[in-house]
Amino acid sequence: MIRRVHFLLGWSLISLTALAQAPTTPLYDESADTRQAISAAIVSAARTHKNIVLDFGANWCFDCHVLDEQMRKPELASIVEKNFVVVHVDVARMDKNLDLAAKYGVPLKRGIPALAVLDSGGKLLYAQDQGQFEDARHMSYEDIRAFFVKRKPR
Fold first, then answer.
1. pLDDT in tens, 10-37
2. Cα separations (Å) of 72 from 15, 59, 112, 141, 150?
3. What are the boundaries of each domain within the chain?
4. HEC states along the chain?
5. pLDDT for res 24
6. Is 5 exposed, middle or buried (0-12, 13-18, 19+ CB in 10 A)?
7. Pick from 54, 65, 80, 152: CA 20 to 30 A from residue 41's CA?
């Protein structure tokens, strides 16, 4: 009986922790015209001499929210703001914008979030093809920061 109570208490604690960690703020506009957003990003990047980050993810994705949280930390937020135009590309339940993921060399089967970096003219410079940020919750801030520093415009 005591083991059963401990099991139930443990299960309840795990369930509450998972609920507390569930993403609540939408990052990805599910009704956005993503092609138009990318076109606008190219125009903006050309004008400001920035690179473009296409952030493929979904609102249900905990690691997508973790990556976004890291990107909002002051030092990294400054690097991103000065050097990149970010476009959040909603992939819904891995059934939306699949053609854009393929166009930019991002195999969604490897997981999300997944990033592609374009130059200011829209040419692909880099695509995460191995699910590098798929486990963002276990990545260090320094590794995430290094990704953006390495891909700043030259």
1. 444 444 444 445 456 789 999 999 999 9
2. 27, 17, 18, 11, 18
3. 23-150
4. CHHHHHHHHHHHHHHHHHHHHCCCCCCCCCCCCHHHHHHHHHHHHHHHCCEEEEEEECCCCHHHHHHHHHHCCHHHHHHHHHHEEEEEEECCCCCCCHHHHHHCCCCHHHCCCEEEEECCCCCEEEECCCCCCCCHHHCCHHHHHHHHHHCCCC
5. 65
6. exposed
7. 65
Q: State pTM to two decimals.
A: 0.84
Residue 14 is encoded by which pair of tokens? 């795990």
Q: Report the interhelical angle of 62-71 vs 74-83 (nearest 10°).
A: 90
CATH number for 23-150 (one of 3.20.20.10, 3.40.30.10, 3.40.250.10, 3.40.640.10): it is: 3.40.30.10
Record the tokens describing residue 121, joined without a space: 């003219």
Residue type, 70: Q
Q: Are 49 and 16 in contact (CB under 8 A)?
A: no
